[in-house]
Design goal:
560 residues; mainly alpha; six-stranded mixed sheet; 6 strands; 65% helix; 5% strand
Length: 560
């Protein structure tokens, strides 16, 4: 910068032609604004001291401030001044700043400027607007911009697919990928990483396998991000062995790859593999991140390893990692599963941050399981106060009272929900058959093969009853007769999905089901029996973890 300042001084003290002076100053501004050894504040000062800075100078400073609101302020100064006129680069740089910050309303104002000043046909700006809306998670605006692009290139398609995947709109992401192929646009590794992430979210193993094969066939570069997406996909689709295979094939592994594999083992309940891999990660001189430690704690929770969990918590703090709410939630869950309620409650009270609803929900679920009215009501009160508009909290508190047979209190909570127009999230399960995702909702018989499903469910009930099965009606949280509760259990979404899997697949094909809620006690017991009497392997991914049912036993060892 000292040499540059000397050059700046030399230029100002020489009688140069005005055009030469302006050109030289614009180059100095550009260097100061964009060079790693420059000085953006010096560039800003020089910009406003220059009599008539050209658009290159304005663009350089706006771009240099792309990670600051100052970028937007300078753009406003340019608009107020009225000269020179912004060009496509100016608008693209401002949109990038709005995307990074993010600044949604300011970005919309820039979009309005683009339309009003005739820049709408610029493919460069269309891509910038698409990226801006996708980054701000305003997917409907992103889709509108996308639909208005006459010739969509690979970047536009990839941005749209990634935007859907990040918002858990996995079906839309895969639909967009299919349309991308129909349009003849070849994806790159970034696009495929988003597609594979969508497969992971849906539990669409067949489509995920096809995407993996597509990557190999097209010889798409398997960078660290794409390989990590494959690890996540196979782990979340229940193929933990294949996830490990992809992991072992990686020539270089960053912290995300290690932590993804660790978390994959954790949600499958493979605690020994988690601890072994974590040790390998440290030996490889890769510093464990928050996700890696979270995976270790999740493994401790599923294995009810209280002492190990305490030790790993201490180790995490020694590594200088700031615990997130997920880490605190794991420790609370760990204590609750071991019936250490007092320790869990003390842990919550001593947290350096205010317990969020996730913590209180974890504690309330434990109180429900153990019918602890006193602590459960405290947790329920905290939940309702912290999130008064979240129907899930009311539903959980209602189920807590039902589990404790406090029907009047349950009725009061239900009345509050009705008065506020709240609806609970219904149980929903999906199963992939021949590359298509079939969804089933609690008590919904709208599926075109519902008659066949009913017949299989009747056969299941007959077979499990012959083995002495007795329904766990405590899972039906309504004050009704036991016979009505038994009928309700038979209509749980995972049972519909499993029945459909029995119809459409034959052994040794694995029946793979994804459920949005935790598997209830009764469905867990029935699925164990189904795996034995039908001689089928069944893998269920619920809200908490994976369950692998084989020959009447579950991989969770009845701990979930």
């Amino acid at each position: 910068m000292r040499v540059l300042q000397q050059i700046h001084s030399y230029i100002l003290t020489r009688p140069l032609p005005f055009s030469t002076l302006c050109f030289s100053l614009s180059k100095i501004i550009g260097f100061c604004a964009l060079s790693p050894v420059g000085n953006i504040l010096y560039a800003q000062t020089l910009l406003f001291q220059t009599p008539n800075p050209n658009i290159f100078s304005w663009n350089s400073v706006i771009r240099g401030f792309s990670q600051s609101t100052q970028s937007i302020s300078i753009f406003r100064s340019l608009i107020r001044k009225g000269y020179p006129n912004p060009n496509t680069f100016t608008l693209a740089f401002v949109l990038k700043a709005c995307m990074i910050l993010p600044a949604f309303h300011e970005g919309q104002q820039v979009h309005s400027y683009v339309i009003r000043h005739g820049f709408s046909s610029s493919s460069f700006l269309q891509s910038s607007l698409l990226s801006f809306y996708a980054k701000c998670e305003e997917i409907m605006f992103a889709r509108k911009v996308f639909d208005e692009i006459p010739e969509r290139n690979m970047i536009a398609w990839s941005t749209m697919i990634s935007g859907y995947a990040k918002l858990d709109m996995f079906s839309e992401a895969l639909d967009s990928f299919v349309n991308m192929q129909k349009a003849g646009v070849i994806p790159d590794e970034v696009t495929m990483a988003s597609v594979i992430s969508a497969c992971a979210g849906l539990g669409a193993l067949d489509v995920g396998r096809w995407a993996h094969a597509y990557v190999k066939k097209r010889r798409i570069v398997k960078d660290t991000k794409l390989s990590t997406s494959l690890i996540n996909m196979y782990a979340k689709c229940g193929c933990i062995e294949k996830a490990r295979e992809v992991f072992d094939e990686m020539p270089a592994k960053d912290s995300r790859a290690w932590s993804s594999m660790i978390m994959g083992f954790a949600i499958h309940g493979h605690a020994d593999d988690v601890f072994s891999l974590f040790a390998n990660m440290e030996e490889s001189q890769v510093k464990p991140n928050q996700v890696a430690f979270l995976g270790v704690l999740v493994a401790c929770v599923h294995g009810q390893l209280v002492s190990e969990g305490r030790r790993r918590w201490t180790s995490m703090l020694e590594f200088g990692i700031e615990p997130s709410v997920e880490h605190y939630s794991c420790m609370v869950d760990l204590f609750c599963r071991a019936n250490l309620f007092e320790e869990a409650y003390t842990f919550i009270r001593n947290m350096p941050i205010d317990p969020d609803p996730v913590i209180w929900r974890t504690f309330l679920v434990a109180c429900k399981r153990n019918k602890d009215m006193v602590r459960g009501e405290v947790a329920g009160q905290q939940l309702v106060e912290s999130e008064p508009s979240n129907s899930e909290n009311y539903a959980l508190l209602s189920s807590f009272y039902a589990a404790c047979s406090e029907w009047s209190k349950m009725g009061h909570i239900r009345k509050q929900m009705r008065d506020k127009g709240m609806r609970t999230v219904p149980g929903c399960s999906s199963i992939e058959v021949d590359g298509f995702i079939n969804e089933f909702v609690l008590g919904d018989w709208s599926h075109p093969e519902s008659n066949e499903i009913r017949e299989v469910l009747s056969d299941i009930l007959r077979r499990v009853n012959s083995l002495g099965y007795r329904p766990v009606v405590s899972g039906v949280l309504h004050d009704v007769e036991d016979e009505v509760k038994k009928e309700a259990l038979c209509e749980h979404s995972e049972r519909l999905a499993i029945a459909y899997g029995i119809i459409k697949t034959k052994a040794p094909a694995v029946i793979r089901v994804v459920k949005n809620l935790r598997v209830c006690d009764d469905c867990h017991e029935v699925t164990k029996i189904i795996s034995r009497v039908y001689e089928r392997e069944i893998v269920v991914r619920d809200r908490v973890r994976f369950h692998r049912f084989v020959d009447g036993a579950c991989s969770c060892k009845d701990i979930w």
